C-alpha cells in the first residue's frame, strides 16, 4: 500500500470548543520538549480522521513569531512523517478517534533530530495511554 505523507485539512483540529475540551480534560503524555494533550472524540463528533491535531508554541518562552512559526513547522513535519505509525498502532489497540494538541515546552529552539525523536516517543506513549484507557472502560456485554 502506498502511504500518503500529506497533512490534510480533515486531520487538523480547528474547532475552538473541541480544543477547549481537550485542555479541560487534561489527559497528557510528555517527552521533553513535547507534550501531547489528548481527548477521545465525543460520540456525537464525526471523525474524519483517526486523529485530529493542533500545534501550539507558547509566546512566554519564544517571544518572536518567526521563531514560534519555525518550531511549529518542525512539529508539523515530525507529525506528518510519523503519523502512519501512530494510526496503525491506534487501530491495533482499537482506540477511538482522538483530538490531540501538541505543545512545545522548551525555552529555545531544539534541533530537528531532537524534535523528531521526541515526537516519535510521545506518539508511542500516546498509544500506550490510549490502550490503558481502553482497558479501564466498562464493556457493554
What does it look like?
It is a single chain. With 141 residues, the chain is an alpha+beta fold. The protein has a single domain (9-134), classed as Ribosomal Protein S5, domain 2 (2-Layer Sandwich), CATH 3.30.230.10. It has 3 helices and 4 strands; from the N terminus they run H-E-E-E-H-E-H. The chain has helices at residues 16-25, 65-93, 112-136, and strands at 27-31, 34-40, 51-56, 98-104. Strands 1-2-4-3 form a 4-stranded mixed sheet, with helices on both faces. Strand 3 (51-56), helix 2 and strand 4 (98-104) form a beta-alpha-beta unit. Helix 2 runs parallel beside helix 3. It is globular. The N and C termini lie far apart (36 Å).
Brief overview:
This protein is an alpha+beta fold and 141 residues long.
Amino acid at each position: 500500500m502506498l502511504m500518503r505523507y500529506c497533512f490534510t485539512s480533515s486531520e487538523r483540529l480547528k474547532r475552538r470548543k473541541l480544543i477547549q475540551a481537550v485542555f479541560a480534560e487534561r489527559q497528557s503524555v510528555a517527552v521533553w520538549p513535547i507534550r501531547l494533550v489528548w481527548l477521545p472524540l465525543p460520540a456525537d463528533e464525526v471523525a474524519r480522521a483517526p486523529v485530529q491535531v493542533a500545534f501550539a508554541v507558547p509566546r512566554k518562552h519564544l517571544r518572536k513569531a518567526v521563531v514560534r512559526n519555525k518550531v511549529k513547522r518542525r512539529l508539523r513535519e515530525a507529525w506528518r512523517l510519523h503519523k502512519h505509525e501512530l494510526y496503525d498502532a491506534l487501530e491495533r489497540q482499537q482506540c477511538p478517534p482522538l483530538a490531540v494538541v501538541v505543545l512545545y515546552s522548551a525555552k529555545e529552539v531544539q534541533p530537528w533530530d531532537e524534535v523528531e525523536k521526541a515526537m516519535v516517543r510521545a506518539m508511542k506513549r500516546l498509544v500506550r495511554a490510549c490502550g490503558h484507557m481502553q482497558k479501564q472502560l466498562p464493556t457493554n456485554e
